[in-house]
Predict the structure.
Amino acid sequence: MKWSKTVELWATPPATGEDVIERPRLALDRFAGAGARLIDLSAPQGYGRTLLLSQWYAKAAAAGTSVVWLSMDGPKDASQFIQGLACASTRPEASLIDSNFAAWLGGTQDPIEALTGWILEVQRSGRECLLILDDADLPEHPSVTEAMTFALANAPGNLAIALSTNPGHPIFRQSAFFGTPLMRLTARELRFTEDETAALAQRRFPGENISDLAEQVHRHTDGWPLGVQLALLEHITQGRRLPSEKAMTQALGAYFSNSFIDRLPPELADLLTHLANLDPLHRDLVETVVPKGRDLEELRKLAYQTPLFVRAENGDWMRLHAGVKEILQRMQAKWPQEKRKACALAAAHWYAGQEMYEQAADQARLVGDTDLALELAGRAMRGLKINGQTGDVLRWLDSIPPEAAHRHPQFWLAGAWAYANSSQPRRMAPLLTLLRAAPDTPEADLAEADLIEAAQCAYSDDLAGLARFSARWPDPALEMEPLLHGSIRATELLLRGQPVAARSQVEAMATHRERLAAAPFLRALIEAFRAVTLLWEGKPQLALDIVRPALAEAESEMHPRNGGVTNLVALLAYAAVEIGDIDLARTALAARLPLIERAAMPDTIIFGFHAAASLSEREKRFDIAEVQLEGLVSTGQARALPRLESSGLSRLVRMHARHDHEGLARAALERLEGLIAQLPKDMPQAQRTFVTMQQQLARAACIFDDPHAAVKAGQMARSLAQELRRGRDQLLAQSLIGRALLAMGDGRGQRELQEVVASAHAWGLKRLRDEAKSYMPERPAPASTSTSTSPAPEASSSRSKSTGILTGREHDVLVGISAYLTNKEIALSLGLSDETVRWHMKNLFQKLEATDRKMAVARARMLGVL
C-alpha cells in the first residue's frame, strides 16, 4: 500500500548519530531479562528519551525482533494513529503484516476493531515483537489516548512495548494496567553518570585528554544529557580550551531562558523566582516561602515536566539547574529588599527546623544576618566533619573573616579537621591554639586536637609526628574517636614498611560496628586503607575484592566527590590496571584524576596517577602519560611530599627508558637525582628508604651506557623493596636486573625474567608480567654466566636496524613519529640535532610517499616497515 510522506515520517525512527555512546545499564535486554513488558521513559525534555528509544529500535532489529516505531507527535486522531501503526508494521524491520492487511487496517472505520486485528496478527506471528511509541503524551485527541490505552492493555505475551512520556501523564492511571509488568525509567535513571559523560566527551573529541573537561561538564550539568551536549559545544566555542564555569552557565542559561523562562506568564515567573537561592528544594519549603493564597499547581507542573529542576532520589526533594538559578537570581535581585529578606528568612527557619543548618546559615547570610548565619553554621560543623565534607567546611571558613570564626568555638575543631586534610595545613594551628587556650575546653576536645595534628601528619607523610602521637596515645582516650586513632597508627606502621601489621590494626577496628554503620566516610576510609596495604604488598586482586563492593556502597551513601569515594576510585583503577582489566580501570578513572589530586591520601594519589599513566602508555599516548606523571611530581612539590615527587619521576624515567626515549629518560633521572640530593638530613629512615628505592629503580631502567651499573642499582632497589615489604617493586627490580643482564649478553637475565613472569602471574600482576615478557628475546639467550660488558649485537638495536627501504636512522625517526614524539624529543632520544631529524624525516616521507606524519606511519605499517 502507498502511504503519504507524512505517515511514513511518523513510522520512521530518527538516526542515532555517530557520536552516540552505548550505555549498557540502559540496554533493552536488561529490562526484558527482568520481565518488563511495558517500559515507560518518563522524563522531561532534554533527557534523551527519543535517542534511547532509537538505540533500542536498532539493537532489537539487529537481534531479529520485529520492531514497530511510531512517533506520536504526528497522529491527530485515532484513524491517523491506526494508519501510522499499519505503515510501521510493513517496514522491513517489522515485517508483521502484508500490504493487503495494511490496506484493511488503514481503511477500517472502527479503531478498536482495527487494533484487535493488529494484535491478533502480532500474536499469530509467534515472533518476539517490540512496539515503540515515542512522545506518547503529546496527542491531545481523546480517541488517540483511548486507542493507545486499548493497545497497551491488550498486548499479547510476545509483544513488549516501550514508550516515552512527560512525568505526570495520566496514561498509566488506568486500572487495565494493574496486572501488566511495568518498568518506569525517570530522569534520575536517564541522567548521564560521570563515566558516561567522560565517554561522550572522548567520543566527541578523540585523541584529546578530556578528564578535566568531563569532570567539569558533569559537575555543572548534573548529568542532564542535553546540558552535557551544550557544555561540550562550549568547549568548541572556547577554541578547545577548558570552558569556564561562567561560560557553561551562560550556555545553559541561554537555553533555559529561550525555551522556558521567557515564555512563562509573569505570575508564574514570579513564583519560580522565589526559589532562586534555595538548594535543595522540598514541596513543603516551596509552600513556606511562596506567599499564602498563591496557586502552586502550575509551579508543580514545571517541576515535573521540564528540565528546569533536577529531582533527587526521594521524590519530594529536588534542585534547580545551575543555569536556571543564575537567571532567577538576577530576577530576584530586582525585588525590593524586604521581599527578598522575607523569602530568605522563611527558608532559613524552615531549613533549621529540618536540622539542615548549613542551608539555613546560607539563607541568613544572604540577607546580611551574620550572627544568625554563624550560629546556624556552627551547628552544621559537626555533621560536616563526621561525613568528611571538608570542602563544605572550608567554604564556610573562607567566606567569613578569621576573627568571626575565632569567636565561635563550634568552628574550631571542624575547621582544624578541614585544614589538616587540605592543601592549607598551616591554617590548622591557630584554631587548635584557640581550643587549647580556652579555659572551659572539654578533655574530649583536647584529645581530638591531638588527633587532628596526627591526621595532618598522616596526610603530609610526617613519620616523626606520627611517632610522637603513638608515644603519647598508644591507646585511644575514652573520648577519642577510636576509628581515626586506629587509622593513624596504621599509617605509621605502613610507612615503616609493615603492611601486615598496619592491616591488622585496621581490621581490628571492624569491631566498632555501630560506629561504622553511622559513619559511611570512616567506613570507606578503612576499606581504602585495607586495600592500600594489599597493593603495597603487590596483591591487586585481593585489593580489588575489597574495593569493588566498598566503592559501590560508598557511592550509594555519599557524594561522588567525597574524599572517601575518591580514595576508593583511585585504588580500584590501579588494581584493575595491574590485573589487566583495562575497561574497568578506564571507567573508574574517567574524569576523576583532578579529584584524586585534591582529596585523596598520599598513597592513593600515587596509585591513581600511576593508573592513569599506565592507561595512556598502553595506548601509546606518551605525551598524555608524561603530563599525568608530571602532575604527580608537581603535587608532591606543592605539598612537600618527596614520596609523590620521587615516585612520579622514577616512573617517568622507566617509561621513557622502556621505549628507548633515551634523552627524555636521562633528563628525568637527572631531576630525580637532584631531588635526592636536596632531601633533609633528618628525614626518617623509612621515608628515605622509599625515595632511594625509587631512585635505584630509575637507575636500573637506564641501561644505555653502563648495564653493569643498572644491575647494581636493580639489586639495591630489590633490597630496599624487601625492607619495605613492597612486593611488586621487588619483582619490578628483578625484571630490570634481568633486562640489564640481557643487554650485557649474560644468560642469567633470561632466568631472572622467567622467574618474574612466573611470580607476577601467580600474584595477578598481569601488567608487570607483560612488561617482563617484553624484555625477553624471542629465542632463549645462550646459557652463559659471562659478565662481559660487551654490548649486545647491533642487529638487536633499533638504532642500526635497516628495513631495506629506510636506513637505520630513518627507521629510528619513524619509530619516534609513531610514538607521538615531537622533533625535539626524537632528537633528544637519538642524540641528534633538530636539523638532522628534519633531514631524515624529509627523506623517509619521500620514500614512503607520505605528506604528513600520520600518513607516513600508515604507509610504513602497510609496507611492513613498522
